[in-house]
Amino acid sequence: MQSNVIAFPSATTNCTNCHWSQICVTRSLDAAGRAEFARYVTHRGPIKRGEKLFRQGDKLSALYVIRAGSVRVYCDSESGSEQSIAFQYPGDMLGFDALADSHHPTSAVALETTSFCTISHDRLGALAASLPTVWREIMRAVALDVTANHGHVQLLGQRSALARLASFLLNLANRFAARGCSRTEYNLNMSRQEIANYLAIAGETVSRLFGELQIRGVIAVDRRFVRILSLPALQAFAQDGALETSRSA
Amino acid sequence: MQSNVIAFPSATTNCTNCHWSQICVTRSLDAAGRAEFARYVTHRGPIKRGEKLFRQGDKLSALYVIRAGSVRVYCDSESGSEQSIAFQYPGDMLGFDALADSHHPTSAVALETTSFCTISHDRLGALAASLPTVWREIMRAVALDVTANHGHVQLLGQRSALARLASFLLNLANRFAARGCSRTEYNLNMSRQEIANYLAIAGETVSRLFGELQIRGVIAVDRRFVRILSLPALQAFAQDGALETSRSA
DNA sequence: CGCCCTTTTGAGGCATTTCAAACATTGTGG
DNA sequence: CCACAATGTTTGAAATGCCTCAAAAGGGCG
What we know:
Number of strands of chain A: 11
Structural class of chain A: alpha+beta
Radius of gyration of chain A: 19 Å
Distance between the termini of chain A: 29 Å
Shape of chain A: globular
Order of helices and strands of chain A: HEEEEEEEEHHHEHHEEH
Largest sheet of chain A: 4 strands, antiparallel
Strand order of the largest sheet of chain A: 1-8-3-6
Oligomer: homodimer
């Protein structure tokens, strides 16, 4: 998000004046509640591209909320291959999958300079006692994460690589829009290879498909900057993935 | 599970004498706790194959735990296609993805005659007040579900169809083993087509791959009954998906 | 300016899909 | 109890979309 419109937050930001209070788990809290919540939150970072918030296998120490920047969550399999699970943006909470056995089953790495908040695992009980309603919001955040995972499975279930890429671009568009950024113009925070891994297709295919969509006038791509020229056309590709004839709407 | 070893539970079963108390969210409760928990639980079913526990779009009314039988969870996309998200067995909790916006983003359908428990959404607050520690278990169940979803994504990220099928068979094996059933012999509760949809490959391919694995002596298949003849060989296929030469261990 | 890394573009091969038909299995009604 | 329908499964042959390997082109950064 850092690269998309919104300025990098100052170090003195806290939950009462945070940009993302409508997206974060604080969204249902009033000013007093947010001030109280802030007592349980530690600001961290900024960390640089490539640095990790946590590693697969690490003992759970806290839950995380992105404050600025962006993060890629991924899994390493026994066979050595890596699978990207999610890209996370400001306001997104991550790390609760570690609540199952107190160890992180995934890793999270910064895609760019990134700041984040942590909520100590030890203090979750106290937080819940102090702000009972916040549990509901945490559950909601978890449920949203589950739903996002379902979306990812649905995306991978789509046969055509084109449909996957189109779905991906639309997903990003919606998430940026939810954060007050442009729905139709944004910077990709990840490399082609990282997109490819997330979509479970080859990097070269991603490249080719960006080309295809550009030739058809559906999007304009310049390096990592994407402009969606026809949202309906992109949605059509996301649904049936048909390439075939002239379809630019 | 009904078809795998364990007898169908009697109608008088409750949380204090439930077969699945080591898997269910009650697993950390003592006898008194379970008795208390049982006050919040309603027994439902049995329902028949094809009947639904809940439908995508339904208003959230309760959380669900399978007691006997098996369930398929799936998503309908706008384009009309369907994507299987998970297969659930006794002790598994489902439905909490609806906590995000109070409506179910998925549907759940019985694969066979199935009984289940419901925990009314309205009474979750009272339950939490009465049994504070149970929240931790519910969070754990949710985290397990998230982890399972990551596993599904990893599975779909694997390129070869053979690796996907092998991973799937191993996943089932582990889950049956966790429930005290045989790890190496079990009945599939779902059709070939349902497996294919879950794995995002064609039904015909599933058929062919079952044949391949059988010819190679890795498994023996008779209709829906599967016997794993070589766990190591199946694991090898799950990791690299290489078919190539003689590899029967 | 030159090196390195990412991205793009090209050509060929192959795994998987698709379409189609034979086959088995289960359930149903006469 | 059998014939038949309906459904699910297997098998075959051809088409194709994506991957792999390889090389060139473009940016970023010292």
